[in-house]
Design goal:
Elements (H helix, E strand, L loop, with lengths): L1 E2 L5 H6 L7 E5 L20 E8 L4 H5 L1 H15 L5 E4 L3 E4 L2 E11 L2 E8 L26 H22 L1 H10 L7 E5 L4 E9 L5 E5 L2 E5 L3 E3 L1
Parallel strand pairs: 1-2
Antiparallel strand pairs: 2-3, 3-7, 4-5, 5-6, 6-7, 8-9, 8-12, 9-10, 10-11
Helix pairs in contact: 3-4, 3-5, 4-5
Length: about 230
């Protein structure tokens, strides 16, 4: 489904819960958000789409679709000509060490919506970002949103098929092969503190595992910066 303008593709997808799985793509998103309610600006030519998936799986298993989406985004960006693509925990995609895409999951009874934003044409002004945020990058309009959605949907179906047949283990292994700063020092920002340590792995649930000076720490949620 392609809509000329919506407040957010996640909201548009949520409004279709119970009507079958579908992708929702828009050319203009007036109230897009990222994690923790951060504003996601969408210049013309950028990509905003959401996948509505119906499932009775536990919410924890559905949340692992952020890793499926990250792998699909990596494949789509590679097919679109991007180089040096890496995956930043928990839900960002980098090109040459700069953020090009983000993923946001929202749930509803019996369904999950996977929202995807990609800087296809333009990157946001760094001055509008938080001081510790990753610097942005764009593909400079080398592919149209509709063409990118085709690449993304095919790649997502491929990795989702793997997830359904074999579970999270092969998704986790594939994600780790492309993980940004694996084995290096990173910082994990929590609501009350920031932890620093070596990025050891992600565990069987997808949680971040840090080796800190006070020992091994597992974090199901955090804002990571380098």
């Amino acid at each position: 489904m392609i809509l000329p303008e919506v407040d957010s593709t996640n909201n548009a997808a949520l409004a279709r819960v119970g009507q079958g799985d579908c992708w929702v793509l828009t050319h203009a998103q007036t109230a897009g958000v990222g994690r923790r309610g951060k504003v996601w600006h969408m210049p013309p030519g950028n990509f905003a789409a959401s996948l509505l998936m119906h499932s009775d799986e536990p919410l924890g298993d559905l949340a692992q679709r952020s890793f499926v989406a990250a792998l699909a985004l990596r494949d789509a960006l590679d097919a679109a000509g991007a180089e040096d693509i890496s995956l930043k925990w928990p839900n960002d995609v980098l090109v040459r060490g700069r953020k090009i895409a983000g993923i946001l999951l929202v749930s509803a009874p019996g369904a999950i919506v996977i929202g995807v934003g990609v800087n296809l044409a333009a990157a946001p002004d760094p001055a509008t970002l938080e001081p510790w945020a990753m610097p942005p990058i764009a593909l400079d309009g080398r592919i149209a949103p509709e063409a990118f959605l085709t690449l993304l949907a095919v790649a997502f179906d491929h990795h989702e098929s793997t997830m359904r047949r074999l579970g999270f283990a092969p998704i986790r292994a594939a994600w780790l092969r492309h993980a940004a700063r694996l084995g290096q020092i990173i910082h994990a920002k929590l609501p009350d503190r920031t932890l620093t340590g070596s990025f050891e792995t992600i565990d069987e649930s997808g949680a971040l595992v840090l080796d800190t000076e006070k020992g091994r720490v597992t974090l199901p949620a955090a804002e990571v910066f380098f």
